[in-house]
Specification:
The complex is a heterodimer.
Chain A (H helix, E strand, L loop, with lengths): L1 H18 L5 H20 L1 E13 L3 E15 L2 E10 L4 E14 L2 E14 L4 E13 L3 E14 L11 E14 L7 E8 L1 E2 L2 E2 L6 E11 L2 E9 L13 E10 L4
Antiparallel strand pairs in A: 1-2, 1-14, 2-3, 3-4, 4-5, 5-6, 6-7, 7-8, 8-9, 9-12, 10-11, 12-13, 13-14
Chain B lengths: L2 H20 L15 H14 L3 E6 L3 E6 L18 H10 L4 E6 L10 H10 L12 E3 L11 H8 L4 E7 L4 E6 L9 H11 L7 E5 L21 H13 L4 E4 L6 E5 L2 E5 L11 E7 L3 E7 L1
Parallel strand pairs in B: 1-5, 2-3, 3-4, 6-7, 7-8, 8-10
Antiparallel strand pairs in B: 2-11, 5-6, 9-10, 11-12
The chains are: A mainly beta, B alpha/beta.
């Protein structure tokens, strides 16, 4: 008994006493509990990798192609984090970092919170934008609704051009997404439709919508073929909309089985 | 009645209510129906320009003044109609025509707020020269706003004001030239044809002392007035292309309307300025006075 106590004491001194001696003992217990939980979740964690090739067309900019890569890491059943990159033939580069946290799980669906940071680089225009998106969502087997706000900084490249006077801030722009699918996500294939003012690598203003249809087919072994096509009109909430452009993509999602 | 039937009924009533309230004023169907396409309109405007002499104002002093307003929103339905000397658009144009330094006025779009010809006719009547109260017969140059294309009303704009994509060149007595470029952004885009035309105009930028661009659709989201949330901007990528063109071409100032509030933003050496609405709920409307000389200054003045 004495020996065991001594060993615990030694470990405690070894780590906490050296790195953060000021932390009181109850805090150490809380820290250890959370650390153990984190390791337990990590042991159950699962990667999802996604890639898609996209063709975009807008009347003002013409055609462009892009390649997107996304990695998603599910830390626990209620937390996942992701990272993504998209490069286009128009010399645009978008990088996103996101986290999704399930707040409430019930029979009728799941209430969740999503936080996304998106950086877009437009070297041809010497311009960059940074978006921070905060959204609440609710999803069930067939539907997904999201509503939130985004803050946007637009700045020249380099940032301090014109003495930093040109940084443009647009706070609290509303974002939304309404999405429906025929079957739940476990089904072998699916078809759905979506209206929103953002996509993986672009967050538009509240007044500009993306209308899209999408689907997937499961090959088995965790491999899924995805496709999406959509329209991007302009002037929708000006009540004077017109055709502006379209996009279509085909991709793969790979979720390694444990 | 089960839940789904009740839900369908509520949705049906809500949709009917939205369309009914939109009747004759807000073109709700315009969210999905394209009444008038920017590319076709710009082709019309450029045809008109080709058949008519370029707009040039000559023998102007080296230092002069230009006025700008927007969003007068005439509407019989809302009782926003010309009221003689009390009328805000009339007061605005009278102030300009009685200012000895001013050479012309600008209306940056949204002159009507209902379907039909009446709003355009009222606008033209308010802008008619009145020698009893106005000293000079200065012109007022117009651009098309989104309300001006509702219910396919762009044809009335064409009938009364002829073009929304054009330039005005000001030649001063000392030989300076200043360029004012007017654009159509009624559908929340400038469109490919118009942007190509704009680029062509700006390729001669070095021939001019100053350059100004006037369009209706404000470029930025604003944080100070959430009633403006539904007012649309250009698509993000087009906005950046436009801003890049403005900066590369050393445009001094971009004058806009649309959001019913005043705002100024500076980006890439360009000053973007928005004027508030003359009518439709505005208690103390203002207009913009731009003093052009060796440098450019602007100030808002209460009507």
């Amino acid at each position: 008994m004495k020996k065991w106590n001594q060993r615990v004491k030694f470990q405690s001194k070894g780590f906490f006493a050296y790195f953060c001696p000021q932390i009181p003992t109850p805090m150490k217990k809380v820290f250890i509990t959370f650390a153990l939980l984190l390791f337990a979740f990590t042991a159950r964690a699962q990667w999802t990798l996604q890639t898609y090739a996209e063709h975009d067309y807008t009347r003002t900019e013409g055609s462009s192609a892009s390649l997107a890569l996304k990695a998603n890491y599910q830390i626990a059943s209620f937390v996942n984090v992701g990272f993504g990159y998209q490069g286009t033939t128009l010399n645009r580069h978008s990088t996103c970092l996101q986290g999704q946290f399930n707040l409430l799980q019930a029979k009728c669906g799941t209430l969740y919170f999503e936080n996304r940071y998106l950086h877009r680089l437009f070297p041809n225009y010497d311009l960059q934008e940074f978006n921070a998106l905060f959204e609440f969502g609710w999803r069930n087997r067939h539907f997904n609704f999201q509503l939130g706000l985004t803050n946007r900084f637009t700045a020249p490249i380099p940032l301090r051009q014109n003495g930093g006077m040109d940084v443009n801030f647009e706070p609290m722009n509303p974002t939304f997404c309404i999405e429906g699918h025929l079957f739940d996500q476990e089904h072998a294939w699916n078809l759905g439709a979506r209206v929103s003012n953002y996509r993986d690598f672009v967050i538009e203003r509240f007044t500009l919508f993306f209308y899209s249809i999408d689907g997937y087919y499961d090959f088995g072994n965790g491999l899924r073929l995805t496709a999406e096509a959509g329209l991007h009109p302009c002037g929708v909430l000006n009540l004077s909309s017109q055709y502006n452009g379209w996009f279509g993509n085909v991709g793969l999602i790979w979720k390694p089985k444990k | 009645m089960n839940v789904m039937k009740k839900l369908h009924l509520i949705l049906l009533v809500a949709a009917a209510a939205i369309f009914a309230t939109g009747c004759n004023r807000l073109d709700i169907a315009g969210m999905v129906v394209n009444r008038s396409d920017t590319e076709e309109r710009v082709a019309d405007w450029l045809d008109y320009n080709a058949q008519n002499e370029p707009r040039v104002i000559e023998d102007v002093p080296d230092e002069y003044r230009v006025y700008s307003c927007s969003d007068s929103h005439y509407s019989e339905r809302d009782s926003i109609v010309p009221q003689g000397e009390k009328d805000r658009l009339y007061k605005y144009i009278t102030a300009e025509r009685n200012d000895p330094k001013a050479i012309f006025a600008i209306h940056a779009g949204d002159m009507v707020n209902e379907s039909g010809e009446a709003g355009f006719k009222m606008t033209q009547e308010a802008l008619n020269y009145n020698p009893e109260t106005q000293t000079e017969n200065d012109p007022c140059f117009m651009v098309l706003g989104n309300h001006d294309v509702y219910y396919d009303c762009a044809k009335y704009f064409k009938q009364y004001f002829h073009t929304s994509t054009y330039t005005v060149t000001v030649k001063t007595v000392s030989g300076y030239q200043d360029l004012f470029i007017f654009l159509d952004s009624g559908n929340g885009t400038h469109g490919k044809r118009q942007l190509d035309w704009l680029e062509e105009q700006l390729s001669h930028r070095e021939d001019y002392r100053h350059c100004f661009v006037i369009s209706h659709n404000w470029l930025f989201r604003t944080s100070y007035n959430y009633t403006t949330t539904p007012a649309a901007n250009l698509p993000q990528d087009e906005q950046y292309a436009f801003m890049d063109l403005m900066s590369r071409s050393n445009v001094e100032m971009v004058i806009m309307g649309h959001f019913h509030m005043r705002e100024q933003r500076q980006f890439g050496g360009v000053m973007y300025v928005m004027t508030d609405n003359l009518n439709e709920g505005r208690i103390n409307p203002t207009y913009l006075m731009v003093d052009v000389g060796e440098n450019v200054f602007f100030t808002y003045k209460e009507l």
